[in-house]
């Protein structure tokens, strides 16, 4: 928690500079506003495409459940043990069955978000 407070203070210190566009990408990375910085502008589009393809290959319901869990944590709505609905949604889905079948058949899964 202490590291989070330190990061939050650093973000607040830089918030006016971020709003004015006066913070460089490396500073934003250090503050936790970015998770990655490409070495140059030319590599940005290729990296963005690679990330988009990686996300697109993931199971939609699992992505939804992950985002929902993070939203609940952010909003402090996820007391310990109350994520059962997310787990049930994912593990009882057609996508879960497809994932298992694809794994056993050594093929790529065909996600449907169902």
What average pLDDT do the residues reach? 81
The backbone outline, from C-alpha atoms, is flat
What is the architecture of the domain at 57-114 at the second tier of CATH?
Orthogonal Bundle
Number of strands: 0
Q: What is the makeup of the main sheet?
A: none
The chain-level structural class is mainly alpha
What gyration radius follows from the Cα positions, in whole Å?
19 Å
H/E element order: HHHHHH
Class of the domain at 57-114, according to the CATH hierarchy?
Answer: Mainly Alpha
Strand content: under 5%
CATH superfamily of the domain at 57-114: Lyase 2-enoyl-coa Hydratase, Chain  A, domain 2
Q: Give the helix tally.
A: 6
Distance between the termini: 37 Å
Do you know the CATH topology of the domain at 57-114? Lyase 2-enoyl-coa Hydratase, Chain  A, domain 2
Helix content: 55-70%
Contiguous uncertain segments of 5+ residues: none
What's the multimeric state? single chain
